[in-house]
Amino acid sequence: MKKSKTKGLTAVSKFLIMKRMIKYKSFIYKTVTLASLAVLNITCPALAQQMGVKRTELQRHNLSIPGREVIQSRIDFAPGEEFGNHSHPGEEIVYMIEGSLEYKVEGRLAVTLKAGDVLFIPAGVIHSAKNVGSSNGAELATYVVEKGKPLIVQTK
């Protein structure tokens, strides 16, 4: 017969033990969460910093050009958020849907796009985008890229 570890304890003692166990579990959850965020920040700083940027893939199709595909995505930027320096294994064509985004494209002056504006970014060119407005900034990005390669190549 299995003996209970709490046999002979008062109800108050049992309550205090349970309370300590709950605090301990809460401490463990918080510690694990913070450790996970630290690991994410160290191993994938690009992903960790991009939390205010939402990328929604709308479509992806093979092209008649061997080894190439087209990907179309909507990218939303919260006010003040930035997607840091990166490039793509192909061309990017940007169409601004709403808001104001500032683009810094390697070899060019910074440009601020508003709804209805367009931008062409050649393959492999490092660039960044930042929402410089006070409301959501959104773009429709169309990529003509090499199939099987990562869409985003993060750089420093």
TrEMBL record:
Q: Does the keyword Lipid biosynthesis apply?
A: no
InterPro entries membership: Cupin_2, RmlC-like_jellyroll, RmlC_Cupin_sf
Query: Which residue ranges does the record assign to the Cupin type-2 domain?
Result: 75-135
Record's Pfam families?
Cupin_2
The residues the entry assigns to the signal sequence are: 1-48
Gene3D superfamilies documented for this protein: Jelly Rolls (2.60.120.10)
Which keywords does this chain's UniProt record carry? Signal
KW Signal (keyword) present: yes
Matching PANTHER family, A to Z?
Answer: CUPIN DOMAIN PROTEIN (AFU_ORTHOLOGUE AFUA_3G13620)
Protein name from the UniProt record: Cupin domain-containing protein
